[in-house]
Design brief:
single chain, about 475 residues, alpha/beta, three-stranded mixed sheet
């Protein structure tokens, strides 16, 4: 029987009211070559890249496996208290500690963002700056963006950005260059529409929209089924069922998810409390579907902004996390680290809460089979860099900056994960290692003191 070949960019199309809509497809057997090693059109099988940011640092003694005094390195590291929410995906997580951010200027928090690009920021006065160069997600997008319908996605969860910090560095995780920040989108519905259709919901929150994209493209679905083999039909049905469930989840979000303007950071009775868990889960689901459909391979997620005053009300907090992060300290007493301050428990519960949100994303990717690769899951074929804007918020330090590497990197990152601790080494070495999992031909990132051409060998899978 003659084999049917489909373009990887095949879309299901239809009309929803007066608006044209389209739905991406998962990778089908008809879209890959006979051996399954490349797309039928000749493109490489993808390894996805995610950068994931949270503001205000951690408690290092509770972040480093084994603690600061007696860290435990290697593959069998104990999960430290702040990382226990990642227990279900620990085999994919590598804490990388002891590394120092080599940014050549410091104005509090801004310098920590150098982790994601390897460039010293460009100072613009006061507590204001802009990125010194492209972030690693945009380096990847430069080479890989043309292979997908969306070169990259920029997502955000909490809108409560710092009002004390100006410029673009602290409010955007992704930058094409010093004058080209890529603002995150905070509204899951808008992201959904951008990925899967063109439906615009009504403005009134009293009349919630109901996304009916699948019914709009039913004609294209039926025509496509007639061209597919049995295995592809099963895969297509599973994909469409997942899209239907995602529509229901997006529509269940409270109107508040789309109401506040991006620039607000106050928690007023008008705006209410941010639905951080609901928004995080919806965005994480969207990332998984975007990857599964190969709509994009590159995502940046600004979960909470640098120095941001996000309030973690879902774990009983009433003050902004930035405030709490300044109200604790660590000290050496008799050779042992001690911690104190009224903000200590709030920082502890806040960072664990954030790691729970990151864990949801990892579990979502792990639970999604990777039809592109033909085996494994999306987490196997993703390379993820996680970091904050400082080591600990109370002193804005960038020595021993909090960094995680996650995912299998398409077989290029070490698995199961390990704890790597190398005191004083450049954090940009970590970012370069993650980028090389996606683009093996890249040899360096950044410039000057924070630039790197030396990836972390321990994080790479054995040849």
């Amino acid at each position: 029987m003659k084999r049917t070949f489909l373009s990887r960019r095949t879309l299901l199309r239809g009309m929803l009211g007066s608006s044209a809509v389209c739905v991406g497809l998962p990778l089908l057997e008809a879209m890959v070559n006979g051996s399954g090693t490349a797309l039928a059109e000749g493109g490489p099988l993808p390894v996805r890249l995610i950068t994931w940011f949270f503001g205000n640092g951690v408690i290092l003694n509770r972040w480093i496996p084994g603690g600061r005094v007696a860290p435990v390195v290697g593959p069998n590291y104990p999960l430290p208290p702040l990382l226990t929410p990642l227990a279900g995906v620990r085999e994919y997580v590598s804490p990388v500690t002891g590394f120092d951010n080599k940014c050549e200027m410091t104005i509090t928090h801004h310098e920590g963002m150098t982790l994601f690009n390897g460039y010293t920021f460009k100072y613009t006065g006061g507590l204001s700056s802009k990125a010194g160069g492209p972030t690693i997600d945009q380096v990847a997008a430069h080479y890989l963006g043309a292979l997908t319908s969306k070169p990259s996605l920029q997502l955000g969860i909490s809108r409560k950005l710092s009002v004390m910090d100006g410029g673009t560095t602290m409010h955007n995780l992704s930058h094409k260059g010093p004058n080209e920040p890529l603002p995150p989108e905070y509204n899951p519905r808008k992201v959904y529409q951008d990925l899967f259709g063109s439906f615009v919901p009504p403005e009134s929150p009293a009349k919630p929209s109901r996304l009916g994209v699948l019914s709009a493209v039913r004609g294209d679905i039926d025509a496509l089924k007639n061209r597919l083999g049995a295995a592809d039909k099963v895969r297509l049905e599973a994909h469409l069922e997942g899209v239907s469930e995602l529509e229901k989840k997006i529509n269940a979000l409270a109107p508040l998810c789309e109401a506040p303007p991006e620039t607000t950071e106050t928690n007023t009775p008008v705006n209410g409390v941010e639905p951080l868990t609901a928004a995080n889960e919806a965005m994480s689901d969207l990332v998984a579907y975007a990857f599964a459909c190969d709509i994009t391979r590159i995502v940046s997620i600004l979960h909470t902004g640098g120095a941001a005053e996000t309030v973690y009300t879902e774990v009983g907090q009433t003050f902004g996390h930035h405030y709490s992060s300044h109200d604790f300290y660590t000290s050496v007493a008799g050779g042992q680290y001690s911690e104190s301050g009224s903000g200590l428990d709030k920082v502890h519960s806040g960072v664990r809460y954030l790691m729970g949100h990151f864990g949801y994303l990892l579990n979502r990717l792990k639970a999604t089979p990777d039809a592109v690769a033909g085996s494994g899951n999306l987490l196997d074929n993703s390379a993820i860099l996680v970091g904050s804007d400082c080591a600990e918020g109370h002193d804005h330090g960038i020595k021993d900056q909090a960094v995680l590497v996650a995912g299998g990197g398409g077989g290029r990152l070490v698995h199961p994960g390990i704890h790597v601790r190398q005191v004083g080494r450049n954090t940009s070495d970590i970012a370069l290692t993650v980028l090389q999992a996606v683009l093996p031909t890249i040899t360096s990132i950044g410039a000057g003191a924070p630039g790197s051409s030396t990836p972390v060998a321990e994080l790479k899978a054995p040849a």
